[in-house]
Amino acid sequence: MKLSIIVVNQNQCRALRQALSSVNEAARHFDYEMIVVDNASIDRSVQVVQTEFPHVKLLGNEKELSYTKAANQGIEAATGEYILLVDPCTITGEDTLDKALSFMESHPHAGALTVRALDAEGNFIPASKNCIPSAWIQFFKFSGLSRLFPKSRLFSRRFKPGWDEEFETTETDIICNSFMLMHKSVLDKTGFFDERFQMYGMDIDLSYRIRLAGFMNYYFAKTFVIHQQSKKADKYSWQYIKNFYGAMLTFAGKYLVRMPELRIKGPSGWTAPSYEFER
Fold it and tell me: Exposure of 188 by Cβ count < 10 A (0-12 exposed, 13-18 middle, 19+ buried)?
């Protein structure tokens, strides 16, 4: 099996239909499987998958789980050489998988890849190039954790990519989880998502572990996906504050005390720490 496509869905019936249709078309040249992990949806998501996409492997949860637990369910069920995690609000271009997989296969040190993302109006989404929220940038700077991301320009100035940077394929620190293409063999070395991260920070953590394991993360600009805006979380709610800022504390507790051990060499090779990462 070449490719396992995983979608974690919760009450996104309409968007899910579009996401599955587009990625199904994009994967037509490959031996692939599609896995939908439905996180206790109360809309028609499950019925739509069962009736309109009968070839999809459906994993239905009776109660709501965190994103990381649901995503890990999909990864554990996957049999493909490559794993693609795609958001249900993402529409995949017809040539996106052809180009992205070709890039991965021609770059043996590539562990993970994301692509240029556009909004529904065709505007570039800057977060697809280096997916670190501004609050996390400040947290990394003041905590000293910015040393873990030596290739990022985010800590010296506010990142505002110009037209040329949007279309420039580069190595990057963080892979955005709205479209996250990874070698399954790399995930077998790093472990899957750390389930202590509930909704935020899991892509930062996994992207960093991929680098520590000796691989590179790439922003691939030669193709694109369209990411439709989903409902934003209420930033003043207790649930948001607990999950968003709690993820920062989890990340700090995981790496800050071990920073002397975390030695990163560069493109020709990386030095990984000797300890095991927890899932």
Answer: exposed
